[in-house]
Amino acid sequence: MRHDDGPADLVDTRLAARLAELRAEHGWSLGELAERSGVSRSTLSRAERAETSPTAAQLNRLCAVYGRTMSRLLGEVEAGPALLVRADEQPRWEDADAGFVRRSVSPPHAGLRGELVEGRLAPGADIAYDRPPVPGLEQHLWVLAGELGVTSQDVPHRLAAGDCLRMRVWGPTRFRCAGPREARYLLAVVLP
């Protein structure tokens, strides 16, 4: 994974420390967390030592176990949020192997339940999440460019530029770049 909000090593190191801290707060062993999340013990160990950065799918599984959105977790390892978030200060996170770039346009902030995320999927990119990070999470997905296939509650949706899908996320979801060009979308996320 690569982060464009500063040296990648610093964000990955902070993320590793926060993941280890969350596990300790819950009093779980690596084995218990592996059982709860479906992420292997060895991957968890390497992620907590900053030897590797988790994939988007692995991070989503961990967020589900800890009851956090991905933005909230990533926000916990970055500098404190400001009321005004300039374009050049919006944290980016990339899962290059999956063809996914995520920019936190309006990161989580204490006292606020919503956030805005820009997503970009390369042609052919296909990301599946086996569970929501927070059950009942409200999402409004507005496609800005390209075509996006989204499956939620086993119902497939094909969205074109300008289309908006509103949903509460209770189970698995899947995001696919359905066209020959990059899909770019804005996701409004509201905690229940």
Summarize the structure.
One of its GO terms (cellular component) is cytosol. With 192 residues, the protein is α+β, with helices and mostly antiparallel strands. The protein is 28% helix and 34% strand.
User: Which percent bin holds the helix content?
Assistant: 25-40%
Largest sheet: 7 strands, antiparallel
CATH topology of the largest domain: Jelly Rolls
Q: Strand sequence of the main sheet, in spatial order? A: 1-2-3-4-11-6-9
The low-pLDDT segments are 1-7
Distance between the termini: 29 Å
Total count of domains: 2
Principal-axes geometry comes out as globular
Indicate the CATH architecture of the largest domain: Sandwich
CATH superfamily of the largest domain: Jelly Rolls
CATH class call of the largest domain: Mainly Beta
Kindly state the mean pLDDT as a whole number? 88
Rg (CA only): 16 Å
Name the assembly state: single chain
Structural class: alpha+beta
Per DSSP E runs of 2 or more residues, the count of β-strands stands at 11
**Number of contiguous helices:** 5
Secondary-structure element order, as H and E?
EHHHHHEEEEEEEEEE
The share of residues in extended strands comes to 25-35%
How would you describe this structure to a colleague?
- The protein has 192 residues and is α+β, with helices and mostly antiparallel strands.
- The chain folds into two domains: 7-74, Orthogonal Bundle (434 Repressor (Amino-terminal Domain)); 92-190, Jelly Rolls, CATH 2.60.120.10.
- It contains five helices and eleven strands.
- It has helices spanning 8-26, 30-37, 41-48, 56-66, 70-76, and strands at residues 2-3, 92-95, 100-106, 114-121, 126-129, 137-145, 147-152, 155-160, 164-169, 173-177, 183-190.
- The strands form two sheets. Strands 1-2-3-4-11-6-9 form a seven-stranded antiparallel beta sheet.
- Strand 3 (100-106) and strand 4 form a beta hairpin.
- Helix 2 packs across helix 3 (41-48).
- The protein is globular.
- The two termini are 29 Å apart.
- The model is unreliable at 1-7 (pLDDT under 50).
